[in-house]
Design brief:
- By secondary structure, the protein is α+β, with helices and mostly antiparallel strands.
- The chain contains nine helices and 19 strands.
- A 13-stranded mixed β-sheet has the order 1-8-9-10-11-12-2-3-4-5-6-7-13. A six-stranded antiparallel β-sheet has the order 14-15-19-18-17-16, with helices on both faces.
């Protein structure tokens, strides 16, 4: 059987999407690619095994179509997650923010269920190596367990119930989501579930990356691989724009059912993959119903997540921002540029970062010295500011508080700030 050779999607190919859809995708998706990778990393498989199986030749267009048509609703397996985003090591960086399905908000130290708050645990996946056990049975049943050396953390969604359990502290948080739709095929996960759990099928991250396909992107089929014992094609996605920090995205696609089995994102700067997530084993059979049943162990501290969230909101009173208020605050968000070099901007209102000028002593000077240690001072016709960098995402914060952020290099941010002056 002929070995699959690299084939490229020509400029402008965009499947069956309308011109309006293509334009929206090209402008909006590349900015979020790195963020999506970090946010959904816990549930998207990646590790490749050994061997390059002989498979029938397939074009990049057909392989993308195969992914799009894939409708795997049931699977279980073990996932190995490895992340190296180059994030600075900061005190208290392990803490997450925000509530979850009524779970304790913000992971505050005084919250009864803070140790079991999902964001606190899922944020740990943004660095280092982790092992997860994943099970999915449609949009109504998902389970993710983060297995550590000394403890295990499980997040279980079944219908309108959500359990989060931390074996280290023997704490369980129970939340309900009565708005979880139940209308035939229109089942939806509760609105308050984090995207990590909503996007429980392996296809999601690969599909997000593929939405960027267009005249700013090269998409080719680059050989085959064995992933968790299954035959797979390798789809190679590369930005054509020089200002992007993304070097390439490689997706291994199950040759039989079109499910992405490998997702590896490598930065243009080289070195180890920034995101490398994958199955060490996978089974597409229906998981046992007992997989999604959860009863707190004897002696476990059980926290009513709904009640705790309501108490926290009452405690904040009028100061607690509503979702509408948060959405309004983001009204200044704008996206400039195109494709992989798109940059998100938030207009500042004069309150930027401390400069430390005339404050060699005191809090202002100390803050400025700290910021200098993790960010680079830059200047241009826009004025001055600091650039904070990871291996994928860079952010420029000007002295007047305007923010420019994207998966682009430092010079691209400075050029954007100069152009917006």
């Amino acid at each position: 059987m002929p070995r699959n050779e690299p084939t490229e999607v020509t400029d402008g190919w965009d499947g069956e999407r309308s011109p309006r859809r293509r334009k929206a995708v090209r402008y909006g998706v590349p900015v979020a690619v790195a963020g999506v990778a970090a946010a959904t990393i816990g549930l998207v498989p990646a590790f490749a095994g050994s061997g390059s199986p002989d498979l029938p030749k397939i074009s990049a267009q057909d392989l993308i179509a195969k992914i799009a048509k894939s409708d795997v609703q049931q699977l279980s397996g073990t996932v190995r997650v490895s992340t190296d985003l180059g994030l600075p090591s900061l005190p208290g960086a392990g803490g997450g923010a925000g509530g979850f399905g009524g779970a304790p908000g913000g992971g505050e130290k005084d919250g009864d269920g803070a140790s079991a708050a999902p964001q606190n645990k899922l944020m740990e996946l943004a660095s280092g190596a982790h092992t997860l056990r994943v099970a999915v049975d449609g949009p109504e049943k998902q389970r993710v367990s983060i297995v550590d050396k000394a403890a295990e953390y499980s997040l279980v969604h079944r219908g309108n119930e959500v359990w989060a359990y931390d074996s280290g502290s023997n704490t369980a948080v129970h939340s309900t989501a009565p708005d979880a739709g139940r209308h035939g095929k229109q089942h939806r996960a509760p609105k308050d579930l984090p995207k990590d759990l909503k996007n429980a099928t392996p296809q999601d991250l690969a599909k997000q990356a593929l939405k960027a396909a267009g005249d700013t992107t090269s998409v080719t089929v680059d050989g085959t691989a064995k992933v968790a014992g299954r035959d797979a094609y390798q789809l190679l996605i590369k930005p054509k724009q020089s200002g992007s920090t993304v070097g390439s995205i490689r997706v291994a696609v199950d040759a039989e059912n079109g499910t992405p089995l490998k997702f590896t994102l490598t930065p243009k700067s080289g070195g180890a993959a920034a995101v490398d997530v994958g199955y060490t084993n996978v089974d597409f059979a229906k998981p046992a119903a007992s997989t999604f049943a959860f009863t707190p162990p004897k002696g476990a501290k059980v926290v009513d997540g709904d009640k705790e969230r309501a108490t926290a909101q009452r405690g904040h009173g009028k100061d607690a921002p509503s979702r509408k208020d948060l959405a309004k605050d983001m009204g200044g968000l704008n996206v400039i540029g195109e494709g992989w070099t798109s940059i998100a901007t938030i207009k500042g209102e004069g309150a930027g970062l401390p400069s430390g000028k005339g404050e060699d002593k005191g809090a202002g000077g100390d803050a400025a010295k700290f910021l200098d240690s993790i960010g680079d001072k830059v200047s241009g016709s826009f004025g001055s500011g600091r650039v904070f960098s990871t291996r994928l995402v860079n952010a420029l914060i000007t002295d007047n508080g305007t923010v420019y952020v994207g998966a682009v290099d430092k010079q691209a941010l400075i050029n954007a700030a100069n152009a917006a002056k």
